[in-house]
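Hello again, I could really use a second opinion on something today. For a while now I've been wondering how a particular protein folds. Please have a think about how the structure follows from the sequence. Here's the protein in full, and shout if anything looks odd to you:

***
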Amino acid sequence: MPRASRNGTRVTVVSSFWFALAALGFLFLSPVDPAAQQSSLQPLPTPSISAGSASASASSSQNAPEMTSQESAVTFQVNVRLVEVRVVVRDAKGKAVGTLHKEDFKLFDNGKPQVVTKFSVEQPGLQVAQEEKTLEAPAAAAPSEATSATPNVPERYVAYLFDDVHIEYPDLIRVSQAADKNLDTLQPTDRAAIYTISGQGGQEFTDDHAKLREALQRLTPHPFWAREDCPRSLTYYMADAIENRDDPQAKQVVFQDIWKCRYNEDPTAAKAAADDTRIDARRALAVGDAETNLALASITNVVRRMLAAPGQRTIVLASPGFITPTRDYDVSSIIDRAVHANIIINTLDARGLYTIIPGGDASESGPPNALIAGVASMYQSASASANADVLSDFAHGTGGYFFQNSNDLDAGFTKLASPPEFYYILGFSPQNLKSDGHFHKLKVTLNESRGFFIQARKGYFAPKESADPEKDKKQEIQDALFSREEMRDLPVDLHTQFFKPSDEQAKLTVLAHIDVRHLRFQKADGRNNNNLTIVSGVFDGNGNFVTANEKVIQIRLKDETLASKLGSGVSVKSDFDLKPGSYLVRLVVRDEHGQLAAESGAVRIP
């Protein structure tokens, strides 16, 4: 039986699996009553196999069954132990370099050199050759159901995320038109989605470009607060400077602005203008905080949504930028999630090529004097720069690209909707890492610069909780399930077959065939012991998660059984009730020693 091609990389994600899928409206697994389930192990000629709950006392008894099966619901939640850094290396012409090796890199955590324990070179964009995994249908099925054309399952996902909260209407029109043109560059195996920071409108992943264009046409700004003409100088950046940093110069600029535009510089109104400065700054800060909180929450939700996309993942964030006072930890957490999930976040400055006009344009009321005008201009420039910082952080931290200072948005989307030709994943395990949430500065260098430019994340935050090995195990399984990488640590083969009792109903069977003789066993009480966790998942033709289940096989084999009676291996079956259509099947098997196997199969049920 042919195998699917390799693609992607195994990752570790910082997230709550239940929360992530709940936010997406998914239900990964329904609780199952083990007592109501029949064993999913297929009968073999010789070994003693039975179903039921295993216990320590049973496994130590010579009369205990050699294999037991238990089916249960799963939840995933994990903390970071392995720090992964996605690195893009570009030459003088901006072209990504993919010929470097592990020994070419140096990695520093807070200035201390680290040992790179994980290294891989990734080349996104390669066509994944899908192999049909469908076996002959059961005897009750019609012969025509036995084979069918291999479905065109998706291999790459592009999420267009529009910041309709911070963006101005003319800029939103320009970026939506550029995104519309970019849809024509997508490949048949690409799936795209439209999301917004406000959460209004949008379109889930699909290959239907008409639906995507309809969502683009519905885009409109949704600011929390319409900016007032008086005072023009009071931005979120200025409010943060006044309230959080107690900046006297910022306070003076806003005071002078209010005093002139509201009170015509009446000397008797100076106190009223000062009171207005404090009140207005607090209001602007509250509104700005709310908009930033929504932006970060929305980006987090899109990253979580991308976790359920089994393929290459790219987010294109179109935004004029925003500032994130006191929210650096949250930005770093989003970058962590994206890096561990192999998600690239590319960003586009929706302002295009812009200039700062000191004091505003001719239609606006200017500052009262040249000194205030100079200071106000300084803050305008600082604010514009700060707004772009978060876009730069998301892009560089995830191995993406930040497109800015250009009005050629068509070229921007063309560049951003495609992943870099090559990137590297460098992973290390921090020694004596404290779970204190403190920031760690990262630096990546090359032993020989060769005129190359390095693009990598600036740092990470330590977790706030201690790592849990059981959660780590569950997270590894989740990551493998929602990946497309084939892993071969364990001797496992994937087979599928389907049966159609009617034109509208079908039963898909996923078979995991395991060569038990080549597993690693731990000897105890005269038995060869190991536990296998087997998760089978089904995704539809657009890569949307449909259903999955988990089975735990507890193996307690006698020596004679292992030596001579398991030549045919063991098959574990999972059944799914589906409607006819195209599906991607993922099989993940993990043993108690941390070894993983993962395979993909494409099935079309006519």
